[in-house]
Amino acid sequence: MMVGVVAINYPETYTYEPWHVTLLVIAVALIALLFNTLLAQKLPLIEGIILVIHCFGFFGILIPLWVLSPRPAASEVFGSIEDRGGWGNNGLACLVGLVGPIYALIGPDSAVHMSEEIRDASRVLPLGMIWTLILNGSTGFVMIVTLAFCVGDIDTVLKSQTGFAFIQVFLNSTGSVRAATGMTVVIMAMQFCAAISNVATTSRQVYAFARDKGLPFSNFLSKVGLFPSG
Fold first, then answer.
1. What is the value of pTM for the model shown?
2. Residues 6+ apart with CB under 8 A from 47
3. Where do transmembrane segments lie in this chain (predicted)?
């Protein structure tokens, strides 16, 4: 997404190269690893930041799209299907298209791996998972319907120089590079915080598996270092 933001802000001078994305992915992974190694006690702060960005960012993206985007008739949005992937079957195309959006609904699983650090986990954890699924599912459905109404010309969006169709939708809807950049930065911030949380979740999985002697070098991986809390 950062590459897409650069592309819309510097369309004349920036030339995309695949290795740009590779370096950015490595950088984010290293930052997330360092955060969980040296600043693990700040993880609740990151979770709080994610919640705030999630709530305000949802409306910060939804409202401009509904207000500024030209919208087609509802019959066109809900009554037409286009198989742009060349699958040859509308049902199969829909199922394949669900692979991306369904990722937003698997987040509750992450909380399970943090259960040993939760007070009253047998009660708090199931409630957290259920409400996360309900809230994210509801807001996700609203956002998907919104994008379906605001996507505009699909061919133009898919050929976007940003490499991300939704960034082009933001740009087309608002007509402003700054607005599209701001809306994209909201998503980038959430993705970055999510990367930190994912590393935290993964570390707990590795520790638990190593503790049960399920990994090579289990004796080393099952050791937990003590860091002074700040």
1. 0.80
2. 193, 197
3. 20-39, 46-67, 87-106, 127-149, 179-201
- For 196-225, the pLDDT digits (tens) are 888 888 888 888 888 888 888 888 888 876
Q: Is 226 left (phi over 0), alpha (psi -120 to 50) or beta?
A: beta
The span from the CA of 35 to the CA of 26, in Å, is 14
Buried b (16+ CB within 10 A) or exposed e, 48-74: eebeebbeebbeebbebbeeebebeee
Q: How far apart are CA 100 and CA 164, in angstroms?
A: 13
Contact, 14 vs 6, CB < 8 A?
yes
Q: How far apart are CA 167 and CA 186, in angstroms?
A: 12
